[in-house]
Inverse folding.
């Protein structure tokens, strides 16, 4: 079960013609898929499209009614290969993932399906993880569209446009026998808005129809000579068909004044930001009404030569607002105009930055430069807000005061103790090279752990250290999450190490979910899942691959974790060594257990809840405990001792009682300040009896002690 | 062209704080009040404890209907163009200002509480940033500024912080929407409705007050000191200059509590020597800095944390009362507490008579033989009789302390330290004060304590070099900061390397 439940939102997927759908962008896409009569959907979760996967997982019932098959694919490659169903049959299918990383993984299958061509509409929905909030390398998915010749849709970021483009995307795909990519930026995926819905459509030709009436067409297989034919087909048939469709259905839009000396060409996804920039410059109103002609590319690839030429013909210069690099569209515009012998200047990266997200501020500044040069009469230094922002100097001290907030492990996270143990082992046996993977565990590279050298991709933790399979007095440690393990780490990591007789160490962090992407179930999840086969232990797979040195450790036992690591690093046994560090993701566990616990308390059942605390009068304010933990709930408090200036450690009320701070205090021999408190709800008779007895004895001694101290009282505080 | 622009609201929150809940509520109340609402966010990794922004734009539905067109709403806040900023923590208000969201047209609503960043928490000393800067800038910059401890207000009502912020937003009048409509949204949420309405009310009222103050602190009635203590205080009043008496009194109090009256007398004896030197060196014109500094650090050093002290503190009634508050136990609820303790052979020997402790530690066979019993950490159940009586017994061993190995070691260290201060004070008053402050390096237990002592000794061994530097006191001060910068001693090593040529420590 995923981090967020969409059980409620799923019901909105049923609404019909004329009703208003309200929700997040990615949910609107889901609804649009159902309105398009899709037969199958697959994908791999990851921000910003995780919610699409989660909502479909929660919508099994509706999908069943509509005969839609949904698959939580093993990887993006698996998802992309799923589109093969649309090659021979008139089946509409959609797949989704985080891009560019997911597209990298999927590209083998994508290239194949793009070469074969499709009969049924095939849509690839990519969450373009670029700019603020992104967690990956900053690249463009645009390149994949060009290299494999798939069409790239980049709709204006409002729900109506997005939904419309999903539906048109399928039609375009079928009209041009080409898979279509639909690109949504992070904020568009999460944008809350509304659109007028249509009825859901049950596909007229189903997966079952296809399976029971198989069709084979040798021309569609990527093998000589067909592969050569495909290339020609792409150029001679599919491309022109796509151009016709895009033009005929006006997928690209023209806004603003019809004529003018200058104009703006913008990627659809950036349209709203451009309008805001124009608004700030006093050149547009809140409805986007402007004198400046705008050509909005809801189809970022391919470009429609005639539309481009028509837009540019009467203009001195056009500004191309294209985010990221290389500037493929700008280059293509120049080619089109040059070939058409049109002298309009194309201004893009000359005035806009080559790298980084295009915010309204960035576009505004580029726009002003552009207008200043080519349309000075339109250029304004206007600030329509009339607001006075503070000068940078006046708030300069703030920049030194406000701390960075790197991401970190959640309160109670079972991965924290793995790195606490690793930090302590490094103190003991010296530093070693650590190869990281993708997942929550990658937060180890940030303070306070500062562990990890590289991260090469999902599931590639161990292969990222495969070169270090050499004679050495120190072994390397690689990290892999359970998500990455099943994604491809089993083969590219473990299989690779076994086959090449690797002598190094792998730590697999097994928290029961694909936690970083939102807590989705995977093969080794312990939970029962109604529609998926879980409970396939990682250890069995690892042994099956031929690993013999294998230890399974409960992560919260820091001492055992240290022992396992140390033994793996120092054992005389050669060959690959794998430690499986197990404990359930605390977010998921709390989400499951907290309501049950609260209910039990309400129902009068005896419940014991644990949490931790620090005694401020024995804490000396060195914060060593924080440096090997970084738990959000382990924080600071003013030192109650007026003689001491350094703040003491303090466990706040978010503590979930995982016990790592106490285990760390033991393992690192830190200090005696940590205590575990067990709070008893609805105590039994025996609890009360014992507590009464203990309380009486203890308070006798305590009163005695207080009385002794009272003899040396300083009087009450002034 | 219409002049009407959307209302732009930015929520600057921390991952896991529930900023999404607040954003969702604002969207709902705006929709009820006839606005078209758009909300965006960039969750991703920021969800896990990072800083994150939720951004909302509102546009009157009737204007849209009149134009028969949808407004084009932006997906991210533009610097200089945000009407309302809700900062769920004071540093996030600062971040909003850094990003230029706060102008003279902006209503800035900020919670004054702190959620410390990891960089602040991991420092060996005090890494906390001062929010005064942010508050000052907010007052100068924002059109409207409402500051209140919304976390405390939420806790008081058992509500989520979002409820309080929602209340402040309603009370601020920044949105032309009635209080009822806001409250209806909380009611419709169906979750902890009463608590959240309580939190909302707290926030609403805080907004009306413009700033919420904490409950007034009641002062206990002054009471008299015990006779034996009175003697000490009289002595202090006679011997210690007034300026230093506050700190010295705290020191005396600590040491009486730590050991006994005699021990506090020893403290005053030691201070008297320092005080005399302070007088000779025009201490009265220097706010008696040397006396104050030594008084503070001498008290802390003399109250070194040995096992007796820890056991004593752990078993007191006042501590039992405190942990109940800290873990938020209900009235009368049974709470079992167990301590994470890891006494090593060293701590055990510390307790022994000095000759015996030394013998054990210097005899490998004895040491390793006994170590076997102290390899593992122990969990001592203080609220059960077994644990309580054990700790209470150890805590009652104060009378053995003066003969213990640890006492002997610390006594020598303290005397050396005081002698160094005395001899340096005559030549360089400021440097002597810095040497007094070196005690701050020595803290913690076990390895942490050993590291502190090591750094302290390293710096003292450099004293001759330091005296040769242009500004010896400043040099030592910066070396101390370096010693507290990281636990591996990297910064300290670099700082020592930068000392002007002279003899450098190995």
């Amino acid at each position: 079960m995923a981090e967020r439940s969409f059980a409620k939102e799923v019901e909105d997927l049923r609404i019909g013609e004329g009703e208003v759908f309200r929700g997040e962008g990615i949910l609107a896409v889901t609804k649009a898929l159902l309105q398009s009569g899709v037969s199958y959907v697959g994908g791999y979760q990851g921000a910003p499209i995780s919610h699409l996967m989660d909502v479909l997982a929660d919508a099994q019932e509706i999908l069943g009614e509509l005969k839609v098959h949904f698959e939580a694919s093993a990887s993006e490659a698996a998802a992309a290969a799923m589109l093969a169903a649309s090659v021979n049959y008139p089946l509409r299918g959609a797949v989704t993932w985080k891009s560019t990383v997911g597209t990298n993984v999927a590209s083998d299958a994508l290239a194949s399906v793009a070469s074969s061509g499709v009969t049924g509409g095939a849509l690839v929905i990519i969450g373009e993880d670029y700019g603020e909030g992104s967690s990956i390398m900053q690249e463009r998915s645009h390149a994949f569209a060009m290299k494999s010749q798939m069409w790239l849709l980049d709709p204006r970021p409002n729900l109506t446009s997005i939904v419309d483009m999903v539906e048109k995307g399928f039609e375009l795909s079928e009209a041009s026998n080409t898979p279509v990519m639909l690109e949504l930026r992070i904020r568009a995926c999460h944008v809350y808005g509304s659109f007028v819905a249509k009825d859901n459509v049950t596909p007229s030709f189903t997966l079952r129809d296809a399976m029971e009436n198989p069709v084979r067409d040798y021309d569609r297989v990527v093998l000589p000579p067909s592969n050569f034919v495909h290339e020609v087909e792409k150029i001679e048939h599919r491309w022109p068909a796509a151009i016709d469709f895009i033009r005929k259905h006006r997928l690209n839009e023209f806004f603003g004044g019809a004529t003018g000396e200058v104009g703006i060409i913008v990627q659809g996804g950036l349209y709203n930001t451009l309008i805001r920039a124009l608004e700030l410059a006093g050149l547009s109103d809140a409805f986007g009404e402007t004198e400046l002609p705008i050509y909005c590319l809801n189809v970022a690839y391919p470009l429609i030569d005639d539309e481009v030429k028509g837009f540019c013909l009467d203009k001195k210069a056009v500004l191309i607002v294209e985010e990221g690099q290389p500037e493929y569209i700008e280059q293509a515009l120049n080619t089109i105009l040059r070939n058409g012998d049109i002298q309009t200047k194309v201004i893009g990266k000359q005035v806009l930055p080559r790298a980084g997200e295009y915010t309204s501020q960035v576009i505004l500044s580029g726009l002003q430069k552009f207008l200043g040069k080519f349309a000075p009469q339109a250029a304004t230094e206007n600030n329509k807000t009339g607001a006075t922002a503070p000068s940078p100097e006046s708030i300069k001290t703030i920049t030194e005061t406000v701390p960075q907030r790197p991401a970190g492990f959640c309160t109670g996270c079972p991965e924290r103790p793995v790195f606490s143990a690793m930090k302590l082992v490094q103190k003991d046996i010296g530093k070693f090279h650590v190869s990281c993977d993708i997942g929550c565990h990658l937060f180890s590279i940030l303070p306070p752990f500062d562990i990890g050298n590289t991260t090469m991709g999902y599931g590639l933790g161990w292969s990222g250290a495969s070169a270090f399979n050499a004679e050495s007095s120190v072994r390397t440690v690689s990290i892999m999450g359970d998500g990455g393990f099943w994604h491809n780490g089993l083969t590219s990591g473990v299989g690779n190490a076994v086959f090449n007789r690797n002598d190094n160490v792998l730590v697999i962090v097994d928290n029961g979910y694909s936690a970083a992407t939102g807590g989705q179930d995977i093969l080794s999840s312990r939970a029962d899942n109604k529609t998926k086969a879980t409970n396939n232990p990682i250890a069995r797979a690892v042994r099956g691959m031929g690993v013999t040195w294998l230890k399974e450790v409960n992560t919260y036992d820091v001492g055992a974790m240290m022992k396992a690591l140390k033994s793996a690093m120092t054992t005389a046994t050669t060959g690959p060594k794998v430690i499986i560090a197990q404990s359930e993701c605390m977010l998921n566990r709390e989400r499951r257990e907290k309501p049950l616990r609260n209910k039990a308390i309400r129902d009068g059942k005896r419940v014991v809840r644990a949490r931790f605390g620090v005694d401020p009068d024995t804490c000396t304010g060195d914060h060593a405990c924080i440096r090997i933990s970084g738990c959000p709930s382990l924080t600071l408090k003013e030192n109650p001792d007026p003689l001491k200036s350094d703040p003491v450690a303090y466990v706040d009320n978010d503590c979930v009682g995982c016990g790592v701070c106490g285990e760390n205090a033991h393992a690192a021999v830190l200090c005696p300040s940590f205590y575990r408190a067990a709070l008893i709800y609805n105590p039994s008779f025996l609890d009360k009896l014992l507590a009464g007895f203990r309380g009486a004895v203890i308070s006798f001694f305590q009163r005695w002690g207080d009385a002794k101290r009272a003899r040396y009282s300083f009087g009450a505080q002034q | 062209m219409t002049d009407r622009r959307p209302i732009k609201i930015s929520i600057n929150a921390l991952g896991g704080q529930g900023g999404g809940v607040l954003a969702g509520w604002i969207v709902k109340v705006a929709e009820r009040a006839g606005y078209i609402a758009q909300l965006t966010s960039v969750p991703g990794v920021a969800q896990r404890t990072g800083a994150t922004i939720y951004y909302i734009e509102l546009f009157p539905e009737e204007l849209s209907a009149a134009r028969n067109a949808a407004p084009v709403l932006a997906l991210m806040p533009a610097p200089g163009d945000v009407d309302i900023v809700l900062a769920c923590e004071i540093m996030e208000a600062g971040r909003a200002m850094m990003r230029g969201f706060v102008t003279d047209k902006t209503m800035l609503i900020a919670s004054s509480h702190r959620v410390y960043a990891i960089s602040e928490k991991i420092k060996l000393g005090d890494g906390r940033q001062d929010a005064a800067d942010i508050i000052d800038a907010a007052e100068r910059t924002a059109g409207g500024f409402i500051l209140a401890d919304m976390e405390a207000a939420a806790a008081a009502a058992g509500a989520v912080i979002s409820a309080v912020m929602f209340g402040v937003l309603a009370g601020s009048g920044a949105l032309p929407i009635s209080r009822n409509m806001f409250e209806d949204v909380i009611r419709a949420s169906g979750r902890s409705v009463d608590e959240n309405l309580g939190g909302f009310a707290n926030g609403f009222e805080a907004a009306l007050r413009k700033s919420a103050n904490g409950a007034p602190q009641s002062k206990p009635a002054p009471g008299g000191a015990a006779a034996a203590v009175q003697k000490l205080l009289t002595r202090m009043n006679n011997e210690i200059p007034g300026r230093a008496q506050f700190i010295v009194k705290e020191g005396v109090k600590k040491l009486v509590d730590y050991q006994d009256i005699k021990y506090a007398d020893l403290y005053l004896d030691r201070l008297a020597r320092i005080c005399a030197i302070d007088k000779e060196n025009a201490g009265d014109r220097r706010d008696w800095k040397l006396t104050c500094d030594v008084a503070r650090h001498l008290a802390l050093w003399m109250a070194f944390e040995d096992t007796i002290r820890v056991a004593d503190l752990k078993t007191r009634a006042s501590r039992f009362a405190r942990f109940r508050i800290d873990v938020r136990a209900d009235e009368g609820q049974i709470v079992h507490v167990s301590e994470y303790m890891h006494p090593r052979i060293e701590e055990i020997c510390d307790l022994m008579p000095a000759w015996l402790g030394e013998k054990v530690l210097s005899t490998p066979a004895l040491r390793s033989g006994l170590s076997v019993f102290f390899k593992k950490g122990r969990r001592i159940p203080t609220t059960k009789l077994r644990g309580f009586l054990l700790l209470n017994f150890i805590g009652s061993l104060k009378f053995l302390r003066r003969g213990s190995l640890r006492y002997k070691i610390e006594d020598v260290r303290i005397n050396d330290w005081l002698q160094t201060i005395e001899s340096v004070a005559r030549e360089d008053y400021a440097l002597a004060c810095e040497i007094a402050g070196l005690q701050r390096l020595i803290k913690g237990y076990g390895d942490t304590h050993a590291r502190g002592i090591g750094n302290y000794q390293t710096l003292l061994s450099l004293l001759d070099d330091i005296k040769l530097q242009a500004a010896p006191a400043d040099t030592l001060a910066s070396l101390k900061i370096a010693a507290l910068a990281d636990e591996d001693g990297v910064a300290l090593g670099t700082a020592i390397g930068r000392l002007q040529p002279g003899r450098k420590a190995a």
